[in-house]
Amino acid sequence: MEEIRFYKVSEPYGYFSNFSPHSIFIDNEKWNTVEHYFQASKFNDKEIKKKIQLIESPMQAAIEGRDKKNILREDWELVKENIMYKALKCKFTQHPKLMHNLLSTKNCIIIEHTENDNYWGDGGDGKGKNKLGVLLMQIRDELLKQVDDELIVFPPWIAFPTISQYDLFWRMGSGEEYLTQWSKYYLATNTIDYRNKYPETKEWEGIYD
């Protein structure tokens, strides 16, 4: 079975990296990268979380998150995989091009190839757990069961479930851009099938009209 290896953002498949410059929105908050959200989630201290959220680069966010002076939440080892999954799911549903890239890997084995990490990565020698790659494949397989078209753009209430239709988010920046992409996709597809598959929620009632 074909393998896809990734690590650095600048290299092929770099968009699978948690450092890739793709913001995510979780619980009505914006995070510059998956890495920012993951590192901040290690702590209960709101000041540390906010500090990491405001850091510009994912590398600096990672450094702050690994600083031993910051006290980890007690249940971190129990919840870290679920937190990573949540962040990755947002990343690949909120960015249609990334979702297409992920779905197009079909049944390839996705590996974070680095000797720097034998938990999230493969340890460089293939003996690591490759948990990041495993989660990416899990999300890919889940999405493949949901969609008929690899180029699909999910309706906003699925891609951004915590953001209200009336939030200013949709009138600027990435929110406005997403609505534009979604509208173009929706109007170009079989609208009846799409509406049946993704019925509007009560809050978004009338959006298809």
UniProtKB/TrEMBL annotation:
SUPFAM superfamilies: YbiA-like. It catalyses: 2,5-diamino-6-hydroxy-4-(5-phosphoribosylamino)-pyrimidine + H2O = 2,5,6-triamino-4-hydroxypyrimidine + D-ribose 5-phosphate; 5-amino-6-(5-phospho-D-ribosylamino)uracil + H2O = 5,6-diaminouracil + D-ribose 5-phosphate. Pfam families: NADAR (PF08719). It comes from the Bacteria. Residues 6-143 form the NADAR domain. This is NADAR domain-containing protein. It comes from Niabella drilacis (strain DSM 25811 / CCM 8410 / CCUG 62505 / LMG 26954 / E90). The lineage of its organism: Bacteria, Pseudomonadati, Bacteroidota, Chitinophagia, Chitinophagales.
